[in-house]
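Hi everyone, sorry if this is the wrong subforum. Our group has a chain we'd like a structural model of before ordering constructs, and none of us has done structure prediction before. Sequence below.
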Amino acid sequence: MIKLSRRRVIRGLFAGTAVMALPSGLRAQTAMASSAALIRGAGLSGDVAFVLADLRTGQVLESRGANKAMPPASALKTITSLYALETLGSQFRFGTHVIATGPIVGGIIQGDLILAGGGDPTLSTDDLAAMAQQLAAKGVRGVTGRYLTWSGALPYTREIADDQPIYAGYNPALSGLMLNYNRVHFQWKRAGNGWALSMDARGKTAQPPAYTAKAAIVDRAKPLFTYSDRGGIEQWTVASKALGRGGSRWLPVRDPAAYTGDVFQTLARAQGVPLPQAQSISRMPGGDVLVTQASDALSPLLRAMMKYSTNLTAEAVGLTASARQGAGGSLAASGKAMANWLSARTGTRSARFTDHSGLRADAKIAPGDMVTALRVLGAPMGLRVLMKPFKLRDASGKPMKTQPFAVDAKTGTLDFVSTLAGYMTAPDGTELVFAIFTADLAQRRRTLGQERPPGQRDWVRRSKILQSQLLQRWAAVYGA
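Answer:
Right subforum, don't worry. Here is the predicted structure as tokens:
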């Protein structure tokens, strides 16, 4: 006769979508509601899909809509991390270079000076200031030729997603030369009967003005911001009724090469290296590298991306990985290349990626295929250590002060889309992998373009509470 452990009996009873409540006495705590009951209680419109699997064996323990392709939102950054780690390697670093096309004679470069981007999404004003200081330390005091910028390491993209507010700092342009996550710092404060305005490339140690961006206050209530590009200057107008006494925010940059080139010119001049106005070039000429600024290695860079959900970093590493494979050429083509890579590596079929950050709602993957990727690729690559610890929420949506089990996961949020995917260690040490997707795409389409769609915040709040309730249930049932 086969002897079954209590855990195996419980798992057999509770596998599947419609799951009966945990019988009294099998756990000291109160009985857990079924997954179906939790979903009904959440009262979410739209679709709810999830998969829970044993990390070691791959056995699916519970699922609902496992094969339904849905927007992963920022949970897509987990796939992007795997794609980059395998293609580029954990020690890969982005580089930004200052190059001279001729020799230095008497402190003057006999030719052109080029600021060449390598696609570094983390390049900061302080990094540029250090580069200008190193250039001056080499004795450079000017150029006989031109000051050029090259941004061809990555394809230019005006914005990641076209359905976001124009002023969203998390939706900037992409190019091979980027600065401050392609954002410019806008600040305003009352001055007499008006406002004092500033646009700068704010860093920790340097705060140079941004001459490629301007802002003006307009007497109106809406829209909050308008944008135009005139003569190479990014022009913003701001509604006066929304400003109050003062404040600041980061605005997206649409011409990052011009912005970066402008800021480096200012910083170089402060070091005694005057440069002419920057000109952009599409083809990179030969020359000698004078200064190099390297990013962090890929692993810590991805850890920061996961923690802060940085869209620009996701797109840069994804585009660079596609270029390494000889694919890409555009953001959409690069997303497709990543989906093809995932299919080839795991046999999954649902992935349709149009970006690498998940900011676009037309990117899709089924929760079952997400779990397969996290288990088959993520576990061997050590993806969990790059993820942020996830804090459970109570019934009111507030973070719990304590929780008896560990969860490391990536969240994702768009209007009427909320996702969570990652790993959990049940109280008894059982290792589990999961993906929870919720989305009301019909409601999202109806409210597209609205700054604060009615009901959006409450919908997301209830979705996040449901995610925590499912995790608590799974810990009780499969970690007893």
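For your construct planning: Residues 456-478 form the longest helix (23 residues). Confidence is low (pLDDT under 50) at residues 1-31.
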